[in-house]
Design a protein that fits this description.
single chain
């Protein structure tokens, strides 16, 4: 099966998109921070990333959702920095201190993609890619010309500009946003982004319009579509309820959702006493009940098994 970006490469549209993306760097408005700095000349904005992407690490990752992992792992590229400032980030050093990760030029980024494919990874999974879309597109042209064939995963926070997502239409095979907050108060307090809820809602609508619901095959692997994560937070069930309702009613009840219960105090979460505990089993079970109540049944494998047990279905 040919991945989406090959068609745009053959038509020349991918090259045109990559050139347009490079222009964004001269007055950067790639993400909702709208810093408008000239990154091509080395000016730094919120993401503290200039002309080149910074890669913290890469490799076959087996901790992602099953439709991405399969038997050989998801080819994950951890890109340094982030356009959010989540105080509880589990990759706090990578997201908050990007200068500790090496810069890579586009040729090297392309080589990383091809190396992950050679290792047998089922896809290329870009983690926190929003601020380096121009670099990814430039590298993708090189990688496709050199034989890249696996699907591309855009693994993000949901804090995305519509114009940037438009650049990616027909290029990204699988979008995987983590819809974090429903309340602007929470988003401001914990991630320094009061406009997050409105922007994330619009972003996931655009993603769903581009790729639709997640498509999986007989081997369980995903080839295209939207996979939505939601990190369950301590005492966050009210926001979880609204997010799940939105997904079901505004996007599709067939949306594939992973309700993540792995929150634990990390980073600078100790500045907020209410975040100084893990999510309880009761909270997780209630979140699954809320998903069922909202009409969502395509939960990640572990979530679905727990839901069936809780509903008394054998």
């Amino acid at each position: 099966m040919q991945i989406a970006s090959h068609k745009l490469l053959e038509s020349g549209e991918l090259q045109s998109r990559a050139q347009k993306a490079q222009q964004f760097l001269a007055r950067c408005e790639l993400c909702p921070r709208l810093c408008r700095v000239n990154r091509r000349d080395g000016e730094l904005g919120f993401c503290a990333t200039g002309k080149w992407a910074r890669v913290a690490s890469y490799g076959a990752h087996f901790g992602e959702e099953q439709p991405l992992v399969g038997t050989r792992g998801s080819g994950t590229i951890f890109l340094a920095s982030c356009n959010l400032r989540c105080c509880f980030c589990q990759n706090y050093d990578i997201s908050h201190f990007p200068e500790d990760s090496p810069e890579v030029d586009n040729q090297t980024l392309a080589a990383i993609m091809l190396e992950l494919q050679r290792q047998g990874c089922h896809n290329i999974n870009f983690v926190t890619p929003s601020h380096v879309v121009p670099q990814i597109l430039a590298a993708l042209i090189i990688a496709l010309e050199d034989g890249l064939q696996v699907p591309l995963v855009y693994n993000c926070s949901g804090y995305e500009c519509s114009a940037t997502l438009e650049l990616l239409s027909g290029i990204i095979d699988i979008y995987m946003p983590d819809f974090k907050f429903w309340s602007s108060l929470s988003a401001e307090k914990y991630a320094d982004a009061a406009d997050y809820p409105e922007i994330a809602r619009q972003a996931v609508r655009i993603m769903h319009k581009q790729v639709g619901d997640l498509v999986t095959h007989v081997d369980g692997l995903a080839s295209k579509g939207l996979l939505i994560r939601h990190l369950l937070m301590p005492d966050g069930l009210n926001e979880t309820r609204e997010i799940l309702r939105f997904i079901s009613h505004d996007l599709s009840p067939a949306s594939y959702v992973n309700i993540m219960d792995q929150y634990r105090p990390c980073g600078a979460s100790n500045k907020h006493p209410e975040l100084e505990r893990s999510v309880s089993t009761r909270e997780y079970q209630e979140a699954l009940r809320l998903a069922h109540q909202a009409g969502l049944s395509r939960l990640d494998h572990r979530d679905f098994a727990v839901l069936i047990k809780n509903l008394g279905i054998h």
